[in-house]
Design brief:
The protein is mostly helical and about 150 residues long. The protein has helices spanning about 10-30, 40-50, 55-65, 65-80, 100-125, 125-145; strands at about 85, 95-100.
């Protein structure tokens, strides 16, 4: 008799990843400044960690968002003065997005609010456990990027 699909290790891994993603997203959302959504935080995080201006198309591709979703998210961030969207002086069709000063403030507020949770996380696991998980997770991500 064949086992249930949930008995298969690859299914269990994806179930765990999905559950972890949901819990991380919910935890971060609880600590965001009023009015900032998780997708908006993701864009700010991406831009700040990347350290340079990016085109909306690149942001959408790297964050695996649709063109419509990134346009909407950038417009909402722009209305709140959290990002700036400027045209390219040479290629007038291109636009570039950068984090505005208010965006950096909102991002830092979120990180400060998350600090106790991150401390709890660090206390719950050793550096070795985090390091040991990375090779498999990176290989899985790379395989998925190349296969789909």
């Amino acid at each position: 008799m064949a086992g249930r699909p949930t008995d298969r290790p690859e299914i269990q891994v994806f179930d765990e990843i999905g559950n972890i993603e949901h819990l991380v997203r919910a935890s971060i959302t609880k600590h965001l400044p009023v009015g900032l959504t998780y997708p908006q935080f993701e864009v700010l995080n991406y831009l700040i960690r990347g350290g340079e201006r990016r085109t909306p198309a690149r942001i959408a591709g790297d964050l695996q968002m649709t063109k419509g979703a990134i346009t909407n998210t950038l417009q909402r961030l722009g209305v709140r003065s959290l990002v700036t969207v400027e045209g390219d002086d040479v290629d007038r069709r291109k636009k570039y997005v950068t984090v505005a000063a208010e965006g950096l403030v909102a991002y830092n507020q979120a990180l400060e609010s998350l600090r106790p949770r991150m401390g709890d996380l660090r206390d719950g696991f050793t550096d070795r456990e985090f390091h040991d998980a990375l090779p498999f997770l990176r290989a899985l991500r790379t395989w998925l990027e190349e296969s789909f």
